[in-house]
Amino acid sequence: MKVINVNASRKYQVVIQDDFSGLKERVAEVFKGKLAVVYDDNTQRLFSDQIKTALSGFELCEITFPHGENTKSLENFGRLLSFLAQNGFTRKDGILAVGGGVIGDLCGFVASSYMRGITYISCPTTLLSMVDSSVGGKTAVNLPQGKNLVGAFYQPSLVYVAISCLNSLPQREIECGMGEVVKYAFLDCSLKKEDIIRRDYQDIIYKCLQIKRKFVEEDEFDKGERAKLNLGHTIGHAVESLEDFNYSHGLCVFNGIDHIIDLSVDFYGYNEEKRQELLSLLNAYPYTKIKRRTASELIEKIKVDKKAESDLINIVLIKEIGNTQVVKIPLQKLKESL
Ligand SMILES: NC(=O)c1ccc[n+]([C@@H]2O[C@H](COP(=O)([O-])OP(=O)(O)OC[C@H]3O[C@@H](n4cnc5c(N)ncnc54)[C@H](O)[C@@H]3O)[C@@H](O)[C@H]2O)c1
């Protein structure tokens, strides 16, 4: 078992355990009320029995949403709020999310607004949500006009990671989470290439969350340093959209970092040896290679995504492994370097 203490506007613990057996004790430390347990259809099928056994003695009300990004909608935001009201939830009660980033983002946002804020506990079940979305307090739903357009900063009261959840996770979702893991290795030297090759998930999750904790504690409301967590994402999002979302988010982040390596080599004037050093970290996980899009295709997409009002864009570059920098560059320069 490993524990991380997060000192954000709310102080909370992230507990990393083999399974759900320690959940009750941990929940009881932060909370005594009634819990709405929220799943998607996959996590309900896989984990509902384990959660009910683990939390025996707690009053639980379960609700299940369809899996997939569309669940992060205003409609489901309203549906979950109504579910709480219909079941007589008060400010003393709370929400327990059992799922990936979709269920986590929806539940966090509902918890932030029901009765102006109730206890939110997260049990992330995908690798991406274990290493990234469950910690840091960003919550959101999507609008037809774009992703994550409505949300709030709202920290959980407890994050409980049961590593055994990864046993049922499809390879595509593991690869997706590894895209974010490799991102962390570029952001901070405490996660090394050898860690990625060894793939001890307990160790990887712990190291990634320690890195995320540092960024969140330094810049909880995303006004500076936290932007570095977007390494590879501007181009990654463009690729995701150009490929009609047929590839996972994390795979597109791998692709985005691949482009960022070229940009960084160009920007800092590095030699081929340095490029190979950066590529060797990127390739420490054997991710699926997807066709590289042209500079024009990427720039057109980035312009639309970023609603670029000027021809300048903020992009995170890699100065050294463990040392990234947010740089404002003209879109034209970005195009020439891609
Ligand atoms: N809040 C943040 O800081 C933050 C950061 C990154 C991403 N996100 C958000 O996270 C979302 C993506 O999250 P995700 O990648 O976890 O996707 P997800 O929640 O859609 O889960 C992916 C799939 O895996 C299934 N699944 C979940 N756990 C499983 C398990 N243990 N075994 C088998 N199947 C399982 C789900 O049913 C789903 O089909 C996006 O909406 C993104 O915007 C938020």
Can you walk me through this structure?
This protein is an alpha/beta fold and 338 residues long. The protein folds into 2 domains: 2-169, Rossmann fold (3-Layer(aba) Sandwich), CATH 3.40.50.1970; 219-337, Dehydroquinate synthase-like, alpha domain. It is built from 13 helices and 11 strands. The chain has helices spanning 23-30, 41-54, 74-86, 101-113, 127-133, 171-187, 193-198, 201-218, 233-242, 249-268, 272-282, 295-305, 331-337; strands at 2-7, 11-17, 35-40, 60-65, 94-99, 119-124, 138-143, 146-153, 158-162, 312-320, 323-330. The chain has a 7-stranded mixed sheet, with helices on both faces. Strands 7-8 form a two-stranded antiparallel sheet. The protein has a two-stranded antiparallel ribbon with strand order 10-11. β5 (94-99), α4 and β6 form a beta-alpha-beta unit. α5 (127-133) runs parallel beside α8, α6 (171-187) packs across α8 (201-218) and α9 packs across α10. The site of nicotinamide-adenine-dinucleotide has 29 residues, from α2, α4, α5, β8 and α6.
